[in-house]
Amino acid sequence: MPRKLALFSGVLYGPDGAPADRVQGERDFMERRIGPRVMVDYPLTAIVDGHRHQCRAVDLSVSGLVFQRSKTLMSRELSQVTAFELDLGAGRPIRLRGRPVWSQEALQAIRFVAMNDADRLTIAEYLDRKAVLRDPMH
Prior knowledge:
19% of the residues lie in helices and 44% in strands. The chain has 3 helices and 9 strands, in the order βββαβββαβββα. It has helices at residues 27-32, 71-74, 117-132; strands at residues 6-8, 11-13, 19-22, 38-48, 51-60, 64-68, 82-86, 94-104, 107-115. The strands form 2 sheets. Strands 4-5-6-9-8-7 form a 6-stranded antiparallel β-barrel. A 3-stranded antiparallel beta sheet has the order 1-2-3, with no helix packed on it. β2 (11-13) and β3 form a beta hairpin. The chain starts with 5 loop residues before the first strand and ends in a 6-residue tail after the last helix.
């Protein structure tokens, strides 16, 4: 049985949310990118219909993220704007609102539409540290 993959920003993700392989030539994805993205593994809580769903962020940028949905969230649709809490280990969760961009299998991409400036700065500084440490970015 062939392995199902999802493409996001030139990276293939397997059904488990882990990056599977790099892909070249996906200019339409690359041209829409606002800033660098980094592969991550952080807790993310999606608040849908008053219920908290524990998910995992797998790809992060200053403009959005990709996350692996929990089993309970797989059967629900995100609203046009959904509340999230991202835990980067900074002492308090980053509270944000995101708009769904695409979903495939267990993966869901969102674009940030509301976040306070301090939290946006926390994400930007996190990405800067990753660049200084020369961690893989895409």
